[in-house]
Design goal:
alpha/beta, EC 2.7.3.9, Phosphoenolpyruvate-protein phosphotransferase, binds phosphoenolpyruvate, 12% strand, binds magnesium ion, eight-stranded parallel barrel, single chain
Length: 315
């Protein structure tokens, strides 16, 4: 009953005093895009395009890719759609692109780094995104995963702009990128924090090892520090800093992220109503206090408890 009540609220994401935080859907296919677009979301903050490449002997053609991207763009119409370029490698191996013999695949050739080994795959995808943009007349936001340096952000932005893409971003999911967020932001129009990998690389903890879940907890204060530093850099630059990892779907964390200055939250569509409710229950000033309380904690359970204790009384 509570869920049904929450689902009736279709308002754009905002705090009690009207500070906007976009509520976006994570998607993996054109069908996902159509399903998500039918719900009360403000667009997609993460289209995981590698889904189109998995279980194949060769890469999908430029035409096939363009058709998929165009379908996703059309599904959302004038709403925002952030399309992530191929994030193969490590937990997402590809037959034609990733090396099977890497000893440390999470630290190897994955994400944007594929440009070193299979540059044509990366180029063809950007060409297909340019095609989809021209075909639909809609403006995709395009971002690269696993960026470590401002130089990589620069090279990716140049390659994307060469295909006519005008909204170019990168993911912040490597601590080096968070620590140098000002320089990264100088190269691109926006960034999006991948909290799953940011936690994995900050805590040196494999995201797939259940027995280490306490270490990779997204409430680890060191991870929150890097999120806060990235958000602050975004505010200095006047550019959007989103979160598209699992963090964004936790309502209490969503209040923390809002308070730290994150401007959009992208999550599984099912999580949107509860996050909308949590963000709306607080003013920006209250959310800031919740964020600072979490940052001041010594460990992950302490950060969660401190955030909860700092919530407005009665919520
Ligand atoms: C992340 O790392 O948080 C992220 C959103 O990307 P993925 O989970 O696809 O690696
Ligand atoms: Mg990631």
């Amino acid at each position: 009953e509570v869920a049904a009540h929450l689902a009736e609220d279709h308002a754009p994401g905002a705090t009690a005093d009207g500070h906007r935080v976009l509520l976006l859907a994570n998607i993996g296919t054109a069908e996902d895009a159509e399903r998500a677009a039918a719900q009360a979301v403000e667009g997609s903050g993460l289209f995981r395009t590698e889904v189109l490449f998995l279980e194949r002997e060769t890469a999908p053609t430029r035409e096939e890719q363009a058709a998929t991207y165009a379908r996703a763009l059309r599904a959302f119409g004038d709403r925002k759609v952030v399309i992530r370029t191929l994030d193969a490698g490590a937990d997402k191996p590809l037959k034609f692109a990733t090396q099977p013999d890497e000893e440390n695949p999470a630290l190897g050739v994955r994400g944007y780094r594929l440009v070193r080994t299979v540059p044509d795959v990366v180029t063809t995808q950007l060409e297909a995104l340019g095609d989809a943009r021209r075909e639909t007349g809609l403006e995709p936001w395009v971002m690269a995963p696993m960026i470590a340096t401002p130089g990589e952000a620069h090279d990716f932005a140049a390659a994307a702009r060469a295909q006519g893409i005008t909204k170019v971003g990168v993911m912040v999911e490597i601590p080096a990128a968070a620590l140098r967020a000002d320089a990264i932001l100088a190269e691109v129009d926006f960034v999006s924090i991948g909290s799953n990998d940011l936690a994995q690389y900050t805590m040196a903890t494999d995201r797939l090892r259940g027995e280490l879940a306490d270490l990779i907890d997204l409430w680890q204060p060191a991870v929150l520090d890097l999120v806060a530093a990235t958000a602050a850099a975004g505010q200095r630059a006047g550019k959007d800093v989103g979160v598209c990892g699992e963090s964004a779907s936790d309502p209490l964390m969503a209040v923390v992220l809002t308070g730290l200055g994150i401007t959009s939250l992208s999550m599984a569509p099912v999580a949107v109503p509860a996050v909308r409710y949590a963000v709306k229950a607080h003013t920006l000033e209250q959310a800031r206090a919740v964020g600072q309380a979490a940052l001041a904690a010594d460990d992950a359970p302490g950060a969660r408890a401190a955030a909860l204790a700092a919530l407005a009384p009665g919520v």
